Amino acid sequence: MNRLFTKKRIVIALCTLILTGLSAVGTVGYLTFLRSPANPPADACADGRPKSSGPVVVAAGASMTQGTLGRDWVGDLREKPEFRGYEFVNAGDNGNTSADLRGRVDSDIVACDPDAVTLLIGTNDVRDGVPLDEYRDNLGAIIDRVKDKTSARIALMSLPPLGEDLDSEINHRLRDYNAAIKEIATRATVGYVPVNERFTDHLHNRGHRPAYDFSFATASLAAGKYYLLGHSWDEVARDNGLELFVDHIHLSDRGGAMVTDVAAQWLSSAEGAAKSQP
What we know:
Residues 61-215 form the SGNH hydrolase-type esterase domain. This is SGNH hydrolase-type esterase domain-containing protein. GO terms for molecular function: phosphatidylcholine lysophospholipase activity. The protein is an alpha/beta fold. The chain has a domain at 37-205 and 253-276: SGNH hydrolase (Rossmann fold). 55% of the residues lie in helices and 9% in strands. The protein has 13 helices and 5 strands. A 5-stranded parallel beta sheet has the order 2-1-3-4-5, sandwiched between helices. Strand 4, helix 9 and strand 5 (191-193) form a beta-alpha-beta unit. Helix 1 crosses helix 11 (216-227), helix 4 packs across helix 13 and helix 8 packs parallel to helix 9. The longest helix is centred in the N-terminal third of the chain and has 33 residues, at 2-34.
């Protein structure tokens, strides 16, 4: 009888442990990959332009912009005193490529009738091997549509390195996409935000850096440390031998601060240019 009772207790304990683990995994999965960013277009622009009396800014991109994995740089912009009264709409969507963003440009950017738009898109194009001509076409089409349907000032943001080893094969490929971004910004006469340049300036002469090694498991583990254990994104990055990224793609607190800084510089200059117009 005692032996049977002991077995039952062990089974109950194991089931409880398993359920607790599954609950934790589910929580991290939802917070990281499934939930919407703060103030997404579906909420902010459901009835057209947000009712904010201040400028409306749409930050469009993929997971780095969504900010549920890694530092939320759009949220940090929202908190800056100089942008008090601005309406920041987060149009980041996990896993998006330039083609995905092109497909939702009307619903997630044009529908907001924004005053300013930042575009940080292409990391997944590089990872997926999307041909450069196709990437150029998508980026150009997004800009043309926003220009045609709104009066927003637009800025293309260069793509951060993939991992911190600047000599890796994937970062050599990334350079062609960033060259295309700069070329398109010039040709389309839109703004250019030098995210990649800021990151590479920081990483140069930093000595040996870990090889690029992103995976879903790495991302999930990083998210678990943040959401379950309460580590900062900088602490998560350090655990992986990194400084600017938590998992070779998504931003640490320090990396996010760099993106916030260069985006804020452009936004302030764009606002100043708008006010100087007759």
